[in-house]
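Q: Focus on the shape:
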Amino acid sequence: MEIKAADVAKLRKMTGAGMMDCKKALMEANGDYDKAQDIIREKGKLVAAKRADRSASEGIVVSKIVGNKGYLLCLACETDFVAKNSEFTTTAHEILELAVVADAADLEALNGVMTGGRTVADLVTEKSGQTGEKVELPFYARIEAPMCVAYVHMNNKLGALIGFNKSVSDEVAKDVAMQATAMAPISISREDCDPKVIEHERVIGREQARLDGKPEAMLDKIAEGKVNKFLTENTLLSQPLVKNNKISVSAYIKQDCPDATVVAYKRFSLND
């Protein structure tokens, strides 16, 4: 049957698929829009399956703050060419809006959010069919705190969410979010660092000291010193502030508001 350009354009608007893919789907479906949509979706699943073993190391990180909640997600693909495509970027922001509206608690919940008769997970799969690349949603996080701030680096490949228990100045909030994005702390503070990580560093510290020929009686003390150094460098509140390494992040926050501290933190990087 004859497939008109207007029909192709209509299906493209409905699915986001390429013009040729829409035309082929309409021809195969004999002009039935519902069937054509199913064909395009099945193609997306086929492409996704074929490229499952590929690495989706490019993409875009997007964020949004709404009141006392913060949202951060990454839509990943295989090449920088696709990552910088306006349609790909639009899809990432559309998924972010779906997350905000649904107030999705985690990645599993977001994948199950419905839009246009299919789930977000289906939408991501369809994007594989449209781009011909592996497309996935590797990260999503939501935080809630009296004050939330987000920072995404200019390359759009890494970002962080920070939640404060009290309001701080915009400058301080941004500086702390930039610090977390750049320095990749493993936790907010020493107190909430995974005990397994601390013990691992302690064991390494003891072994290093032993290999350096230190007396057996000194090994525990040396190991604790190394653990303290590790925690200072790798927990957000203890880290030296990047813009002024003479004070810690915690001290910098308290200069602005004595009772303020960080109570929520999420970070993602496509490069990690």
In short: DSSP finds eleven helices and ten strands in the chain. The first strand starts at residue 58 and ends at 66. The chain has a mean pLDDT of 90. Residues 5-50 form a domain with the Helicase, Ruva Protein; domain 3 fold (CATH 1.10.8.10).
